[in-house]
TrEMBL record:
InterPro entries cross-referenced by the UniProt entry: Chitin-bd_dom, Chitin-bd_dom_sf, MetalloPept_cat_dom_sf, Peptidase_M12A, Peptidase_Metallo
Keyword Metal-binding included in the entry's annotation: yes
Keyword vocabulary terms for this entry: Hydrolase, Metal-binding, Metalloprotease, Protease, Signal, Zinc
Gene Ontology BP annotations: proteolysis
A molecular-function term among this protein's GO annotations: zinc ion binding
Upper lineage: Eukaryota, Metazoa, Ecdysozoa, Arthropoda, Crustacea
GO cellular component, one term: extracellular region
Active site: 159
The record's free-text note on cofactor binding: Binds 1 zinc ion per subunit.
PANTHER family registered for this protein in UniProt: DISCOIDIN, CUB, EGF, LAMININ , AND ZINC METALLOPROTEASE DOMAIN CONTAINING, ZINC METALLOPROTEINASE NAS-8
Top-rank EC class of the record's enzyme: hydrolase
Annotated organism of origin: Halocaridina rubra
SUPFAM superfamilies registered for this protein in UniProt: Invertebrate chitin-binding proteins (SSF57625), Metalloproteases ('zincins'), catalytic domain (SSF55486)
Entry protein name: Metalloendopeptidase
Record Gene3D superfamilies: Chitin binding domain, Collagenase (Catalytic Domain)
Amino acid sequence: MSLIFSSSFCTMRVLHILVVLMELSQVRTMSLYFGQALDSAEAFDEHSSYFEADILAGSVVTKMAVRDNHKLWDGGQVPYKLDFDPTSPDNVYVHDNIMAAIAAINAVGCVSIYEANMETDVVNIRLDVDYSSYVGRQGGVQNLTVSSDNSNIGTIMHELMHTLGFGHEHNRADRDDFIIIQWDNIKDEAKPYFQKYTEESGFTDHDISYDYESLMHATNQKNEDIFIDLNKPIITRLDGSTSVGQRSHLTEKDVERIIAAYSCGICEDAPDNTLFRYPGDCHKYYQCDQHHAVARICSADLHFHVEANYCDYPWLADCTEMS
Ligand SMILES: [Zn+2]
């Protein structure tokens, strides 16, 4: 499958401001963040109020997964380091939430976000006033910021999804078949966040159908920075209902999307997901293990018997069939 950002996209900066759909009892006002200088290509910024917007060099980037393999993390392995003292009493709560968010993503069993050792491509997790993340692997050290004031596990998961290479659901090219953006209730400065992806945006939906409840969908959480009238929604479904997005959990389709982007759900060439041939070496075979194809070696000099699909005596498992 192809997963990538278009090259023009790679050179652009993305600013992503988001309506964080947190169960906050207080409404926090904050200013939007357009045009903030960021070190490299695309970045998403999730503000700790309730709004989210993705702006890349003045245009909007939308959700789904990057189409460029170089934006994905090799083998789904994502090293991180903490740019703060997790033992400081002020940071214990937010640190716990970050660890819980990482655990929730890792629980999918497809990607692994782990404490960095000597890796060069690393996610540097910082505390800041707002949430932010780049979309996909940038190369080198890339920041992911978490609001220390409004720490929320689901919102941190949302950021980690951006880091893994996913954009927003409500920006999908086909979104008008599912939702109506209530432009009349959206402030001008927030409108870019609701634009649709185009082919040039560089995302793929992996043929996974629209997900109203995605962790990556914008919500109707009231936000003075976005809403003109706080008593009216900014997004409705075609049937008029207003339940969209959430910031608490990965939906089934969010999980499907991770599995599709990182190829965890498929062992290609293994129709029944069991054993299959290893090209050019009849002592070896592949086994599908946790959705990954893992090379194995037949014991006792046996050869892999392609037709029978197991290791057998060399004279029974004709090596020429492996060529
Ligand atoms: Zn976002």
